[in-house]
Sequence to fold (247 residues):
Amino acid sequence: MSNIRDMPNGQTMEVRVWRSDGEGGRFEGFDVPQRESQTILDVVSWIQQNADSTLSYRFACRVGMCGSCAMMVNGQPRWTCRTHVKKVLKNNRLTVEPLRNLPVIKDLVADMDPFFDKWVKAEGVFHPSKTRADAIEAISSEHPMRVEADRAIECINCAVCYAACDVVEANPDYLGPAALNRAWTLMNDERDAGHDVRLDAVSQKGGCHNCHSQQSCVRFCPNELNPTASIAGLKRETAKSFFRRRD
Ligand code: SF4
Ligand code: SF4
Ligand code: FES
Fold:
């Protein structure tokens, strides 16, 4: 049995939810009971369980680990399982939409393929420098490169930063904050042998030099990461690489 209780005064809120079969769409309104410690994901689940079982949305862990529950809430990208209603409710109203800057599959479910395709384009994949026959390399947690990688490593792939980024909106080729942040962690992985190929990938059309450094990604990242700083690191390394290769 749920331990979430309705508010004693039976108060409800007005929730507008985006409904779409992938082409076009419209808002639909629901009256949802307000509850103690209620998250946006609780609200969406209440609608699906009590008002319209055809409502589609995505979640898995409910505890801020998997990154699958991100949506636009009152126009801003949020991880909905960790966003409390009382923090974002305005005039007793909520608007919930699928993540911006991605195609919609249905209702609140964004198609994540373009987001992850860009991780591949940014060479956000590990290039091993050793084989399984080699001894396992010990990397000190205090090594400066490891420290730099650690600052950016806790990404949960939620695409909140991608939805917050105006450059992604204006330029669909832009690789975006999360893919570039991932590329930066690998640039700081001593075991990785793909640094040159990665610098080529992130300096092409749509690469790190498109970032205007205004930090919307930083403002909204639920894990308090700083993709702008990672992208600045890539800009520095691509410039160094240009001069190194010219000499
Ligand atoms: S700082 Fe760069 S990556 Fe971050 S939101 Fe702005 S343009 Fe996008
Ligand atoms: S950088 Fe932050 S906002 Fe962007 S995908 Fe990773 S965890 Fe989400
Ligand atoms: S459901 Fe996993 S992060 Fe929200």
Notes: The longest strand covers residues 12-19. The chain has two domains: 12-110, 113-246. The CA atoms of residues 136 and 166 lie 42 Å apart.
